[in-house]
Structure formats: C-alpha cells, structure tokens
Design a protein that fits this description.
The complex is a heterodimer. Chain A is an alpha/beta fold. Chain A has helices at 12-20, 23-45, 50-66, 68-81, 92-106, 117-121, 124-130, 140-147, 164-174, 186-203, 229-235, 256-267, 300-304, 320-324, 326-331, 342-353, 370-374, 381-394, 402-414, 417-438, 451-454, 467-475, and strands at 85-89, 110-113, 134-137, 206-209, 213-215, 220-225, 239-245, 249-250, 275-280, 290-296, 442-443, 459-460. In chain A, β5 and β6 form a beta hairpin. In chain A, α3 (50-66) packs across α12, α9 crosses α10 and α16 runs parallel beside α18 (381-394). By secondary structure, chain B is of the alpha/beta class. The two termini of chain B are 29 Å apart. Classes of the chains: A alpha/beta, B alpha/beta.
C-alpha cells in the first residue's frame, strides 16, 4: 500500500522541525520564493483593474459551485458530442482504476504526462507502476522530482527545494544518456532534459494530463504551461486521458478571459504564459483520436457542503499564497505532508481528507493574512483556517484535553470583572518575589507548557501595578 | 464624545505603561477617556485556537461593556481586528459596537483628525507593522504619520517590514520551531537598523520580538508606539 498523497507521515510541527534543520533547503526556498513573489508583485501592479478581476474570478467560481451538478452535466454532454468519452470517479482509487484500464486497453505500457496536480493528488503514477505501466513526467521540474524518487514540494515549482548543482547531480546519476561532464548552467540542464524527453514524445502512444479549466458550454479543456512539453503530450500521442477535478469548470468560454489574466500573473509572474492549449473532444485527422476525460470528486463534494470551507474550491492552483507565506518559506512543501502544501494546502487538504486525517494543518499558520492579499480568487484563507481549527477542536470535545481546560478556565476568569481583577493581582503578587530576585521583569525559562515559549525567547513578568489598579488609584481615589 | 478605553488583557497585566500612555495622549488633546472596569479580554486566543464556544461569552461581554460609548479605542491592532472583523461573525449583535472600535492611530488620524500629538522623543527607532493591523485593519501609514510628527525622532525603515514576526498567538507554542525561525529573521532585520527601539501597535507581537532580541543579547528594546506619542519611554 503506497502512502496517501494527501496525508503526511508526521504531524506538521514535527515534519516542520525536520525540514527546518536543512540549511541548504532554507536558502533555496528563500531565494526562489522571493524571486517569484517580487515578479508577481510587479506584474500585478501594472494591471489597473486587478481588484475587479479578483472579484470577477471569485464570483465566477462561486457561481460554478452554486450550480455544479447542472454545469457538470452540461460539460459531459458537450464533451461527449465533440467525441470525447467522459468517466466519473468518486475517489482516488476509482480514478486510478479508470486510467489504468484505459491505458491497458491501448496495449501500451508507457505513458507521457503533462504536469498535473489532480494526478498527483490521486497517486496515479504509483497506481500505474503497480499495474506495470511506466509514467514519465515531462514537465522539467516534475521530471527532476521523479528522477530523484522524491515528492513535489510546491504546486507550481515542484523542484523548488533543489538548486541547480543538485539538479545536475540528479541528471548525471539518474537520467539515462546524460553527458557525465554536464555543467549546472540552466541552459545546459534544460537542453539535457530536452534531448532525453524528445525521443519519448515521438514514441509515446498515450498521454495523461490534468486541466486548468473545463468549459461547461463547449466541453473544452484548457492547459496552461511554460515549456511546451505539455503541448507535445497533448498533440502527438494517439490517446489522451485527462484527469480533472470537478471544481475546474467555468460556465462559458468567455469566462476564461478573467482567469487567463489572473493565473499567469499570479503564478509565474508573467503577463501571459508561453503555451495555452485548448481542445474540444476529437478533431478528425488532427491530434489524439482517442480522447478521455476522468472527472474526479475525491472529497470535493464534502468540501462543497461546508459553507465557509467551500471557498477553497475556488483555487486555480497558482501558488501565489505559497510564495508569500512566511511559514512555507521556512519549511517548504514536504512539511505539509500533502501534494497541496502552503496556505492553500492547509485549508484544502484537511477538507479533502476530512479534518481528522490532517488535524495539525489548520494550525500551521500565524494567520498573518499575506495569502489572502495575493489570492487571485479571493479565498479568505485565514478565515477558513480558523473555521477548520474549530472543527479540529470540536471533534475532540469528548476527549480530555489540557488545552481545552485552559481555554475554558481563561473564559471563566474573564467572564466576571471582579474575578479577572483578582486573578491579575494574584499573578502579580505570585511573581513579585521572582522579579525582585532577578531584578528584572524577564525570565529565561518557564515550566511546561510555556517552556515552548522560552525555548526561543525570554518571557515577561507581570508589571508592578496592573493598569486597572493604577486607574483605580489615580482616577477614582480608591 | 465619550471615548471608552479597551486596555486589552495583555496590556493590563504586562504593559500598563501603554495604557497610561493612551490616556495621556488623549487627555493632552483635550479628550476625556473612560475605563469601564467590567472589561476583561476580547477572546482572540480562544477564537483563533478553534474554541469558538469559549469566545462567544467574551464577545457578548465586550459589547455590553462598551455599548454606551461613541468610540472605543484599544492600543492593539490584533485585538481591534478581533472585535471589528471577528465579532460580527461570532455574534451578529456585536456589529454596531464593533464598527465603533478603533486602534489608536485610527482614532487619532481618522476620528479626531490629529497627526501631531505634541510629542518629543530624541531616539533612533524603527517600526514593525504587525499583521492584523496591516492586513485586517488596513492601518496603512497612519502610525508612521503620527511618528513622523514626533520631534527629534529618527525613524529608520525596517527591511522586510511587512513580513510576520512569527508570533501568531498559540502558534508560537504549537509550532515553536517555525515561530523561532521567523523570529530570528525578524530580529536580524531589526538589528540591521541599529535602532534603539523597535516600535509596533501590538504588545503581544512585541513580547515575542522583545523576547528574541533579549535572548540574543541585542541592544534594541521593544516599545509600543503609544508610549512615544505620550512623550516618553517606559
């Protein structure tokens, strides 16, 4: 049994601690996230109606979610009429089984892949491998990760945790036919990968892709990419199988106008991405003649049922929130244990799996709000995080918890002015001898659970006189 | 105009000097400030940690305590954000008082129309815009405008100022390692300014930042900007 691509082996705090100790990783991440973040900021600043675009993007997505069943049927009818075959998958296992069967029916045991989050989410490569089918990632960064036998650490830049000398080493050791004298010049690296991939594009019988958008009116699928490798996969093989989350719909072709502006500027910091491929079923004599679309739920309907949480389904996988997140910047994607890392991962993953399987993720944020500010479809990530924290707490209500006891005690104390005043006095008196002894109002070590605080920082002691005591003494003559 | 001071629990217990500074600034400008003693805590810790049921009574209590005031002022961006942004979602009947609750710089600049509060502070300082003030209240440059009007104050820019310090309430304890990594970068940025004081609109964030500075032996001291506006340090 391979591991669930949405559930990590360790809770976030422990996985984060492991990742924090990798100095090279932190340097790579800092440099990469800051570069993309700055590019994005420049590209967004030059669009005068950016805020209106965000509002429009959010409104279109909200509309799609409000009438998803109707739009899905419309999409199925349009795609089928255009010659595609539409398949429905309730979960990852069903989706993998469908794709595996479709590949087997073609008689091949090799597929080329377009970069796709949906196929990562369902663990398709592992499922195909178990069935004796080799899946080759053709996106440069996905290829690096696949060669290294690693997992992606970023939605858009899956190999963000490697720098170029590490990538050169991976190519030299693991990519067949690589020149042993390969340098770490980015052009040389890209050329080496290009040569390796080119032969496989020409011989591939089957391609597997995802889709950035699916147009309900026309049955069209859309893929945005930078390298052109995706276009190779989408046009050369005889069979094309696309795995698409059911929330990827837009109602009409004209709605793409909004997203084709929002997505490139938010994700790669470009005005327009180099390659946008669109296809509608089968075109006789041009491109794949055997076209399949696998529509995947995998937790999306459950997410849709949550009034606050459903906005996470607006996500267009741009990863702008990852690039501005101070937590992601320090720990990288692997700490989240899911193919969806960073702020969006912390709200999407626990909803797709159910909060019980990812209890620590909603707490993996300081609620600083930088993610909400950059989100092109206005997902209020901090609001959803707090909402999911409530779910994480609520479903443990039957179990004893020191934290809940402390929270309840705090509320009890603070629910009566007198009680609160008395507790402030006790806190001050109890710590007065310590303050006198130390001759200062900071301490370097506190007992558990506050030892987690003093591990990294000194802690203050209560002031000599609380504000309310000062007020009473100086204003009310008591 | 009846101005009610919401001191916040952190300031009440640990930083009464900040509260005294708010009173001093407002009284110097000719306003009367009242301190309803029934007030306690806004409940942000409970709400943001997932304990909604435990936060609701505190929201109700706040609304009752401050019902009669024209304006409520608090020297904390995050507590005001909890009231203004969080309360209406928690308890709809709090919406009215929530809309009249201001962070100090909002009250001074927007409501009272003052930028120069007549303070003097002959020191080199830098300012860290705390996240909830910056991104939830959209305080913008209001605190900086107030500080620029302070005589003899040398205000130096903080590198990567808008990046979170890593406090995040219970995050600092639950994800202490990540919080510490963020804190180390914030402290390095502060040290690079050679400022004598690092200012902010939140003593909770400043407790975290100050704790990190003090642990690393840095000479820079944390101070709430209200204490500068009052004309002295603590």
């Amino acid at each position: 049994m391979t591991r669930n691509p949405l559930v990590g082996e360790l809770p976030f705090p422990e996985a984060a601690r492991r990742e924090l100790s990798r100095e090279q990783l932190r340097r790579n991440l800092r440099s990469a996230t800051h570069t993309i973040r700055d590019k994005r900021a420049r590209m967004v600043a030059e669009v005068p109606d950016w805020e209106e675009l965000r509002v429009a993007g959010s409104a279109i997505k909200a509309d799609v979610l409000a009438r998803l069943p109707e739009l899905l049927t419309r999409f199925e009818a349009a795609a089928t009429a255009a010659g595609a075959r539409v398949h429905w998958a309730r979960d990852a296992a069903e989706a993998c089984a469908i794709v595996t069967r479709l590949v087997r029916e073609t008689g091949t045991d090799e597929v080329v892949k377009v970069k796709s989050m949906a196929t990562q989410e369902i663990g398709l490569n592992e499922a195909l491998e178990a069935a004796g089918i080799t899946a080759l990632e053709t996106d440069l960064a996905e290829l690096i990760v696949q060669l290294a036998d690693d997992t992606p650490s970023h939605i858009l830049v899956p190999a963000i945790h490697y720098n170029r000398s590490e990538i050169r080493d991976i190519f030299r050791e693991r990519m067949a036919g690589t020149d042993p004298d390969l340098t770490d010049d980015p052009r040389a690296l890209a050329e080496a990968a290009r040569r390796y991939l080119r032969e496989r594009f020409l011989s591939a019988k089957v391609a597997v892709s995802g889709a950035n958008f699916a147009v309900a009116d026309t049955g069209t699928l859309v893929v945005l990419e930078s390298e052109g490798n995706g276009r190779m996969c989408l046009t050369l093989p005889e069979t094309l199988i696309s795995v698409v989350g059911i929330e990827k719909l837009v109602p009409t072709f004209a709605d793409l106008e909004v997203f084709l502006q929002l997505l490139p500027r938010s994700s790669t910091g470009e005005r327009m991405n180099p390659y946008t491929s669109m296809w509608t079923g089968v075109t006789s004599g041009d491109g794949p003649q055997d076209v399949h679309i696998v529509l995947v739920d995998n937790g999306r309907t459950a997410t849709l049922a949550d009034e606050v949480g459903r906005q996470a389904l607006h996500c267009i996988r741009c990863s702008a929130c990852l690039n501005v997140c101070p937590v992601y910047e320090r720990v990288g994607g692997h700490a989240y244990g899911s193919v969806y890392p960073g702020p969006i991962g912390a709200v999407l993953t626990p909803q797709l799996t159910g909060v019980a399987a990812n209890r620590s993720l909603p707490f993996a944020s300081t609620l600083c709000g930088a993610c909400f500010d950059v989100c092109p479809v206005r997902i209020d990530i901090p609001q959803v995080l707090v909402h999911l924290r409530q779910q994480a707490v609520d479903e443990r209500r039957g179990h004893p918890s020191a934290e809940r006891t402390a929270m309840r005690a705090a509320t009890w104390i603070m629910s009566a002015g007198r009680r609160y005043t008395r507790v402030l006095r006790i806190a001050r008196r109890a710590t007065r001898p310590l303050a006198a002894l130390l001759r200062r109002r900071t301490v370097r070590r506190l007992p558990w659970p506050l030892s987690a605080w003093t591990a990294e920082r000194d802690a203050p002691l209560p002031a000599g006189e609380s504000f309310r005591d000062w007020w009473a003494r100086s204003r009310e003559g008591s | 105009m009846r101005i009610g001071l919401f001191i916040t629990c952190v300031n009440d217990l640990l930083y009464p000097g900040t509260g005294r500074a708010v009173v001093r600034v407002l009284e110097r400008l000719g306003h009367r400030v009242e301190f309803p003693v029934e007030q306690t805590c806004c409940g942000q810790m409970q709400a943001n940690s997932g304990y909604r049921a435990e936060a609701v009574p505190l929201a109700r209590r706040f609304a009752e305590t401050f019902a009669g005031y024209d304006a409520v002022v608090a020297p904390s961006g995050s507590c005001v954000a909890m009231v203004r942004d969080g309360y209406p979602r928690l308890l709809p009947e709090t919406a009215e008082v929530a809309a009249r609750t201001y962070e100090l710089s909002e009250l001074l600049v927007d409501v009272l129309g003052v930028v120069d509060v007549g303070a003097r502070f002959p020191h080199r300082v830098t300012y860290h815009p705390t996240c909830h003030g910056l991104r939830m209240l959209r305080l913008g440059d209001r605190p900086m405008r107030l500080l620029r009007a302070v005589r003899d104050l040398e205000l130096v820019e903080l590198p990567d100022a808008e990046e979170c310090c890593g406090f995040g309430g219970t995050f600092a304890v639950k994800n202490s390692d990540v919080s510490g990594a963020m804190l180390a970068d914030k402290c390095a940025a502060i040290r690079a300014t050679d400022a004598e004081y690092v200012l902010a609109a939140d003593n909770s964030c400043l407790t975290h930042i100050g704790g990190g500075l003090s642990r690393s032996g840095a000479p820079t001291r944390p101070l709430h900007y209200a204490e500068i506006l009052a004309g002295g340090g603590r």
